[in-house]
Design goal:
Length: 148
């Protein structure tokens, strides 16, 4: 018997897809665009799509609020990318450029960058300001990601 389906927002076309939990690792395809529903790369978030990703996903959503001019953000980017690839069936990963998406960043009271946040069903679960080494980032995720 398969687990009950979980709703995943396609990272390419933002269509909602229902995927059985035990099939998340089987590279499910979007019913609309036929691309992989889960990506091993972070989603590029924007003011236009951010709410949809954090409210309509059954998986937790990990967000990196960053800016191009921020040195620590640039140093943390490859770590975020690598962990996103390793954990693509456990959470969706989103990068949001705070300079290009000031409305969303302001709405979440982002005052320093990088700021990491975890959302589940549209609600903030955890927040942390500052770049982390990979091991500490993974530990923070292990302590704060909700079970699906």
């Amino acid at each position: 018997m398969t687990d009950s389906p979980i709703q995943i927002v396609c990272q390419r076309c933002t269509t909602k897809n229902r995927v059985p939990k035990d099939k998340l690792g089987n590279k499910p395809l979007c019913g609309k665009c036929k691309q992989l529903v889960l990506s091993t790369h972070p989603i590029v978030g924007s003011d236009a799509n951010f709410r949809r990703y954090i409210t309509d996903n059954g998986l937790p959503v990990v967000v990196d609020f960053w800016a191009t001019w921020c040195g620590p953000c640039q140093q943390f980017a490859p770590i975020f990318e690598q962990v996103a690839g390793e954990m693509s069936t456990q959470a969706c990963f989103v990068k949001l450029d705070t300079e290009q998406n000031q409305s969303t960043a302001g709405g979440y009271n982002i005052r320093s960058i990088p700021t990491l946040m975890i959302f589940h069903h549209g609600k903030e679960v955890a927040r942390l300001s500052g770049a982390l080494p990979k091991a500490q980032f993974q530990q923070w995720l292990a302590q704060n990601l909700p079970a699906v």
